[in-house]
C-alpha cells in the first residue's frame, strides 16, 4: 500500500514537472537581467536570436524593450537601420531612441526614449550586420533587398511565435536612411502574406526612396548651405550630378573623366572634415575618447544637454565588452569584433536604384499611415528631395491636403515644418536642427513627432 502511494505521488510530481516545462514562458530565455552600467529601470528588456532558415545557418539578432508603462496596451514598433549593413541595435538603441546611451563605462537614461510610448523591437538585418550572422560565409558574397526582406519576414514570424501576446497589438515598422528600402519592402511583404499580426503603418527617417531625386538633392543642399561654390554647383547641374557620380563610381565601377573631375572639385570644397549627417555639427576628433567624456562640466544624468559627436565610437566600445555581450545573449560568429556597420557583408548596390515610390503609394492606398521625417541639416538624404517626392506621390494619388504646410512645435519652440494628406495617411515633417538620424541630436523634437504619429494626431501646433 505504501509503495502504491509513493508511485502515485511520483506520477503526480512527474506530471507537475512536465506541465511546468511544456507551459513555460518561451520569452524567459531572452530576458536581460541588467545591462552593465545600467541605471535603475522598471521595464522589461529582451535580446537574442531567431533563426530565419530551415538549416539554421542564419540567425538574426534582436533587442526588444517593453514600454515603460502599460506595455500591454501600447503599440509594437519594429525598427530597422540603414547602410545597407548598419546595426539597428547599435545605432537605433544606443545612439538614437533606445532607453539608454553609453557614457564611458556606464549607461545614462534617455529621457526621450521611444519606449515611453511604445514597445520597440530593434532588428539587425540582414545576417552579417551587428550580432546577426550566417555560418555559411557564401551568403555574404552578394546580399540584396529581396533577401533582406524575406529574412526579416521570417524573423517576424518566428519572433511572434515566441512573443505571442504581441500579435494583437497595433504594429508599425520604422527605419532610417536605407531603411527607406528595408521598411517599405518588408511592409509590402507583410501586406501580401497577410500574417496574423496587423500592420498599421510605417515611419521613415531621412529615407532613401528614389535614387535620382534623393541623391541629386544633395547638389542643391550643398550649394544652398554654402558647401560648394556657384561654379561647382553649375557643373553638378550641367556636367555630372550626384546620382550619376554615385552610379558610375559605386555601381558600374566605370567613372567618366567628367564625373571624376566634377567629383574632385566638389569634395575639395565640401571638405573632408565636414559632417554631412549634420552640416552644422562637429565631427569626432578622438579615436579613443568621446566628446562627453572630456567635458567635466557635463552631468551624465542630465541627458539631452549635449550631443556626443563620438557616439559611434562610444557605442562600438560598449558593445565589444564581454560582459555586455553576455548580458545581451549575443556572440560574435565569423568576425573578431562588433562593428556599427558590417565589414563582411557585400551588398548589391544595384538595388539602390530601385524606386520605392510604387510600394509607398500602394501602402498609402491600402490605408496604412505613413510618416516621413527629415532632419533639416542632413546632407546625406536631404529633405529637399524627400519633400519633392512626397508631393509628387500625393498628386498622383489625388490625396487632399488636410494639414497645409506649416510650423510644428515642441516646448513652445518651432520644431520643424510639416504637411499631411488624406487625414494623416501621409505626413511629412522636417525636424529643425536634426541630422541624418534626428533622434540622436534632436531627441525631444523627434519624440514629440513620434508620439503624435502613434496617437494619430498631426504634430503639435504650439
From TrEMBL:
Keywords attached to this entry: Carboxypeptidase, Hydrolase, Protease, Signal
InterPro entries: AB_hydrolase_fold, Peptidase_S10
Family annotation (Pfam families): Peptidase_S10 (PF00450)
GO molecular function: serine-type carboxypeptidase activity
Signal peptide positions (record): 1-24
GO biological process terms on file: proteolysis
Keyword set includes Protease: yes
Cellular compartments per GO CC: vacuole
Membership in a protein family: Belongs to the peptidase S10 family.
Matching PANTHER family: CARBOXYPEPTIDASE (PTHR11802:SF399), SERINE PROTEASE FAMILY S10 SERINE CARBOXYPEPTIDASE (PTHR11802)
Name of the featured protein: Serine carboxypeptidase-like 45
Organism for this UniProt entry: Tripterygium wilfordii
Amino acid at each position: 500500500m505504501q509503495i502504491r502511494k509513493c508511485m502515485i505521488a511520483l506520477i503526480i510530481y512527474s506530471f507537475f514537472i512536465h506541465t511546468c516545462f511544456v507551459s513555460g514562458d518561451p520569452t524567459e530565455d531572452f530576458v536581460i537581467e541588467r545591462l552593465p552600467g545600467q541605471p535603475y529601470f522598471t521595464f522589461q528588456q529582451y535580446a537574442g536570436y531567431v533563426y530565419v532558415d530551415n538549416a539554421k545557418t542564419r540567425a538574426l539578432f534582436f533587442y526588444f524593450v517593453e514600454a515603460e508603462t502599460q506595455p500591454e496596451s501600447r503599440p509594437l514598433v519594429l525598427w530597422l537601420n540603414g547602410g545597407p549593413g548598419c546595426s539597428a541595435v547599435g545605432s537605433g538603441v544606443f545612439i538614437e531612441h533606445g532607453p539608454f546611451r553609453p557614457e564611458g563605462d556606464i549607461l545614462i537614461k534617455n529621457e526621450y526614449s521611444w519606449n515611453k510610448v511604445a514597445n520597440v523591437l530593434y532588428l539587425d538585418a540582414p545576417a552579417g550586420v551587428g550580432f546577426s550572422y550566417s555560418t555559411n560565409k557564401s551568403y555574404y558574397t552578394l546580399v540584396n533587398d529581396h533577401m533582406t526582406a524575406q529574412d526579416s519576414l521570417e524573423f517576424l514570424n518566428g519572433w511572434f511565435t515566441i512573443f505571442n501576446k504581441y500579435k494583437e497589438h497595433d504594429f508599425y515598422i520604422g527605419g532610417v536612411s536605407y531603411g527607406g528600402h528595408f521598411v517599405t519592402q518588408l511592409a509590402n511583404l507583410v501586406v501580401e502574406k497577410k500574417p496574423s499580426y496587423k500592420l498599421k503603418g510605417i515611419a521613415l527617417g531621412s529615407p532613401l526612396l528614389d535614387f535620382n531625386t534623393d541623391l541629386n538633392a544633395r547638389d542643391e543642399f550643398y550649394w544652398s548651405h554654402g558647401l560648394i561654390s556657384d561654379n561647382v554647383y553649375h557643373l553638378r547641374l550641367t556636367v555630372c550630378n550626384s546620382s550619376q557620380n554615385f552610379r558610375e563610381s559605386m555601381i558600374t565601377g566605370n567613372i567618366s573623366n567628367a564625373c571624376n573631375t566634377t567629383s574632385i572639385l566638389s569634395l575639395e570644397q565640401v571638405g573632408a572634415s565636414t559632417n554631412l549627417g549634420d552640416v552644422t555639427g562637429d565631427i569626432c576628433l578622438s579615436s579613443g575618447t568621446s566628446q562627453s567624456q572630456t567635458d567635466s562640466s557635463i552631468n551624465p544624468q542630465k541627458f539631452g544637454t549635449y550631443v556626443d559627436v563620438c557616439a559611434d565610437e562610444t557605442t562600438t566600445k560598449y558593445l565589444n565588452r564581454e560582459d555586455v555581450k553576455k548580458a545581451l545573449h549575443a556572440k560574435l560568429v565569423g568576425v573578431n569584433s562588433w562593428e556599427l556597420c558590417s565589414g563582411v557583408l557585400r551588398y548589391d548596390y544595384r538595388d539602390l536604384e530601385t524606386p520605392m515610390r510604387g510600394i509607398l503609394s500602394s501602402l498609402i492606398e491600402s490605408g496604412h499611415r505613413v510618416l516621413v521625417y527629415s532632419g533639416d541639416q542632413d546632407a546625406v538624404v536631404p529633405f529637399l528631395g524627400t519633400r519633392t517626392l512626397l508631393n509628387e506621390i500625393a498628386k498622383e494619388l489625388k490625396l487632399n491636403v488636410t494639414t497645409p504646410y506649416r510650423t510644428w512645435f515642441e516646448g513652445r519652440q518651432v520644431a520643424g515644418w510639416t504637411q499631411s494628406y488624406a487625414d494623416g495617411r501621409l505626413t511629412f515633417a522636417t525636424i529643425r536642427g536634426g541630422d541624418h538620424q534626428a533622434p540622436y541630436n534632436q531627441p525631444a523634437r523627434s519624440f514629440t513627432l513620434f508620439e503624435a504619429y502613434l496617437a494619430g494626431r498631426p504634430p503639435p501646433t504650439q
